[in-house]
Amino acid sequence: MSQSPLGLSEDLLKRILYLLGALVIFRLGTHIVIPFISQTALASLVEDNRDGILGMFNMFSGGALERLSIFTLGIMPYISSS
């Protein structure tokens, strides 16, 4: 088993890099907004329900609901198309 300069095995290093790449893609995807949605109306809706379930969902999604990004949709478009 070969070692990297940090003392980690090559397999572990590949897994860590894969994880970091997935996190970068997720964070970028939370900033790509869905077109034709009124951002001001959505912001007021989230602000009005900040203490309710929408605020909790927005917190767990990393603010993706507040921006209504493509990752807010989740798996529903795939289920609808099949």
Automatic annotation (TrEMBL):
Keyword set includes Transcription: no
TM region positions: 16-37, 57-79
Keyword flag Protease: no
Name of the molecule in the record: Preprotein translocase subunit SecY
Record key words, sorted: Membrane, Transmembrane, Transmembrane helix
Alphabetized InterPro entries for the sequence: SecY_dom_sf
